[in-house]
Amino acid sequence: MTILILGLLLFLGVHSVRMVADGWRARQITRLGGNLWKGAYSLLSVLGLGLIIWGYGLSRAQPVVLWEPDLGMRHLTALLTMLAFILLAATYVPGSRLKAAVGHPMMLGVSIWALAHLLSNGSLTDVLLFGAFLIWSVLGFRAARRRDRAAGVVYRAGTLAGDAKVVVVGLLAWGLFAEFLHGWLIGVKPFG
């Protein structure tokens, strides 16, 4: 569990700098240069993610079960993660009204992803992992929206065609991940 906690602290800590110390971050980017900052940020993120994956795997070997989720929660989790993937697609596929409306669809998508996994998993490891990501993403979404308002950010209006692309890309990514990659990477096959 210690490795998982260290990974979460490192990964989410690096990703929280803008939330809690935006001025310090800006000074460091100026002092170090954008490329060095991005390199250090990326290196620490990858290290944190590696520790999360390793720690999660170790912790799952001896689970501490807090509750047994209802089997029906798997269906709700599938639906919510599908929505999370669509929001993730809205982050990268240009021209969607969804991005214009939400502003930060990745943060909202991570919140929905984490909540979905909390509903269908009842071990201490899962509560720690998904609970940490849920708290971080809710706080991050709020901070990003506050920054947008303070800076007067207005997102370009999207189109129906842009929304259609986002939905198609999100559904394809969700389907491929759920059917093929989730079992291979996580060890759990959502659809059997």
Automatic annotation (TrEMBL):
It is found in: Membrane. Its main location: membrane. Residues 3-190 form the NnrU domain. Keywords: Membrane, Transmembrane, Transmembrane helix. It is a multi-pass membrane protein. InterPro entries: NnrU_dom (IPR009915). The keyword Transmembrane applies. Coiled coil: none annotated. The keyword NAD does not apply. The chain crosses the membrane at residues 40-59, 71-92, 112-139, 166-186. It comes from the Bacteria. This is NnrU family protein.
